[in-house]
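Posting here for the record, re: MGD.
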Amino acid sequence: MRQQQQPKQNSMRPGKWYNSTCKMCLHTCNTRIHVSDTGVVDKIEGDPTSPSNRGKLCPKGNAAIMRHYDPNRFLQPQKRTNPEKGFGVDPMWQPISWEEALNTVAKELKQTMDDDPRKLLSASTNFQKFAHFAAGAIWNSNNFFSSVGNYCGGGYHVINGIIHSAFAGVNDVERCKLWINHGGGDGFSSHLHAAAQAGRVADARMDNGMKVVVVEPRMSIGAAKADQWIPIRPATDKQFALSICHVLVNEGMVDYKALKKDTNAVYLVGDDGLFVRNSDGQIYVWDAKANQAKIWSDESVGALALEGHYEVEGKKCRPAYQAFKDILDDCSPQEMEKITTVPAATVRKLAQDMYQASEIENNSTIEIDGRTMPLRPVGYNYYRGAQGHKTSAQANHTYKLINMLLGNIDTPGGHIGSTLNDWGNVDNGHIQPGENGMIQTNPHQLHPAAPFSYPPNETTLLSYFPVGADAGHLNIETYEKQEKFGMDFQADTLLLCHANPMWNMSGTNPRWVKMLEDMRFIFSIDIMPNESNEWADIILPCTDPLESWNMCMNEPPQTEGMCLRQPVVPPLGDLKSEEEILSELAERTGQLAQWNMLQNNIYGLIQKPELVLEDDVKYDDKEIARRKGLLWNNKDLDWYIEHGHSVTPRRPDKWFRPWEGLRLHFYIEEFIVERNKLQQQMEEADVPFRHEWEWDDYQGLPLPVLDPVHQEPEEFDLYAITFKDIQINFGESLTNPWIDDIVFKDPVHTALLLNSKTAKDKGLEHGDYVSLESPYGGSLHGRIATSEEMHPDTIGVSNALSRMATQHTGAKHAGGRFNDLLPTDLRNTDAVTGQPETVAKVKLTKLKSMPTPVTKNSVFGIGEDLQ
Ligand SMILES: Nc1nc2c(c(=O)[nH]1)N[C@H]1C(S)=C(S)[C@@H](COP(=O)(O)OP(=O)(O)OC[C@H]3O[C@@H](n4cnc5c(=O)[nH]c(N)nc54)[C@H](O)[C@@H]3O)O[C@H]1N2
Ligand SMILES: Nc1nc2c(c(=O)[nH]1)N[C@H]1C(S)=C(S)[C@@H](COP(=O)(O)OP(=O)(O)OC[C@H]3O[C@@H](n4cnc5c(=O)[nH]c(N)nc54)[C@H](O)[C@@H]3O)O[C@H]1N2
Ligand code: SF4
Ligand SMILES: [Mo]
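Prediction output follows.
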């Protein structure tokens, strides 16, 4: 690794540095914050002692100063005095005391709880305070009202949890030689600790000659810097990955040894999709030497068969690998090219490059910490763009299968599981043994499963996704179609805490507006106005990250350890921390013991009796932070204040092959088992929508079936995609002047991106005004920027063009909200995981001029930067 640089002290007055942790995205880069002797925060730098971000921050990290001093921040509790609610309607906030604010909210919460707790919807989504995700559960509600974690990772987290009991996946950058980024910005612009990974990837390319290949419809930052950009038609990612598998399998470019030893690819699967078992429940494999079936653990097996068709216990069966090979017969690169538009030769070459880089042929090994392991320096990395589609479970499974065929899962150089936070304790591993020699699957990374119920208890239909999580967008479906879904209650209370569901969820704005209009009571715990809390009846203003305590660690790649956040300046107003507010509300409603129990369990404090929160004490942010630090490494706050963090390189035993001796799930039998169970439950309860449930989404191995987004009427001939970028944190950072300064000068973020030839074919020119309409009633408009750097079937809509908030004077409105274009129906929802489709089919119409702005904040003029 290159030499670490010291932070530079530009334009700062004399003052003091504090150790802290960034919170401009959900990750946890270590920072140093400088406060002048006059009490002004005038610099934020990366902490050079951090093995994670090594003294570096991304542009968002530095811009935290501007968020802190944002004149729009909420500085005291407020109540709405305008009874009328609506998009663009001034709530006429009036300052009130904390007593009045807390009592009002507590009274309403109590009423809802006594009436029917299911009527409370909760959008509480602070990843750095994971217990707050369960805020609704303080008042016994299981109804989650957000697409956080689901829009991006509905399928991703489930499959990571099933395959290697992990939350995310990341390539081993220190040893990787060929890094594939498929629909994700890792190492360049987004995903895991972007500021930390950008430096590591750059080092790996300079120092180790690592090559990068990017597969996506848009020339992203990563694609522009990569050795190869493979433009792909949106939402055909699964088919692309299956064609890679086809080449690897049919050309014998496979780590057979790893498949036989480390996976269940040798287990025999029957035509019913279940493994063939003996009367003791033990699974059979085929011994090709003895030419007979044996139990998986039988030491006399001479040669494990990966291929062939057999009959065992009266059932026709084949090894899981053979079942996959049979599926791949229909997935040749030539066939898949018709769908993906990626030339067959490109696929073949990439598969060959990956195999060569994998060092399977040389049987390469490496010794780390006295442990000899295979070395597989190639990783197939992917995220939201590749996985955010209807058959998401199958898509994610395919990407894992590529990695499994190359024998690189959790293996040095390869594709490694990254955990969320190891349940707060450095000694926790994340792997448990499961049945029949396999690892225990762990699909519920975001939300525990809910027991089956009809009528449904959850507005997200949570209990209909036994391996999935909260499908936030379904809130609107179950609200609008109560009869169809058999809903016997209607939500009327909304808790917003660090949340912006009105920006983040799919479905047209008027639909969500109608739902919010029907709410009896809405309250928000936030630092500033956004699309959602402008509907609130009460605002409970909280301290921001420069004014509060926390101790956190969020899916760090390569490292582990707790990161301290401490107040560096006093609160700008009459503010309380989120912890204080939630504890006050819990106490006033008689739920304090419940809240402390949730925090004990979710943060893992129950692992050390001395750290367990007591039932009847209100804990503030400082005390929770202190206990989280003690849980990790027995260090108290004074130690953390001095050191800033306990981040170290990740312990190799947790990082590499922590499941050694167990088998990974090449074949996911659990999907078939859960599908059968759910089918039976729905049948017995006579659930009316069971015939609409997409049972075919459940597959033990992925199929090349097309997602419904490709079957929209022909006039919708373009695929609209959205994207983040290194300087953007969703929509939220787009009220920050430093961020705006770099975003709104860039055509990538101010225009709708269209391929030059496509534009010409449609009679359009660079800078023309256009509208986009989706088959689901949503539309947006803007000016196009033409470029060779877009797939010809794609139109790109940056997150910068999606703000609608009217109560924040800095929110710049463009021509709509991308998510208005997206469907919310069951047809476009993965029936396994609840993942919604995040690509929209649209038709494009040329406009004579830009429509009249709908609000005073509209910035349609931003397109002028194109000229
Ligand atoms: N800078 C930054 N980093 C972040 C965040 C942030 O807001 N900003 N948020 C964090 C969070 S919560 C998440 S979930 C992650 C998300 O991290 P990513 O998944 O890396 O981010 P996205 O921009 O959502 O999607 C990645 C890419 O997919 C492309 N894409 C869109 N549709 C398709 C498609 O159909 N196929 C393919 N192949 N590509 C497509 C987009 O052009 C985009 O470049 O990032 C985390 N890190
Ligand atoms: N069009 C489009 N839609 C998307 C995405 C996309 O890229 N494009 N990304 C999807 C993904 S990956 C995700 S995870 C979601 C994210 O969806 P969002 O809910 O928008 O996530 P955040 O930007 O984290 O912001 C939530 C709100 O928290 C508030 N906030 C910020 N800091 C604090 C704080 O310290 N305390 C409190 N109490 N509040 C604070 C801000 O008002 C902010 O608006 O959106 C999803 N939806
Ligand atoms: S990657 Fe996230 S945590 Fe790191 S500096 Fe950027 S915004 Fe902050
Ligand atoms: Mo996300």
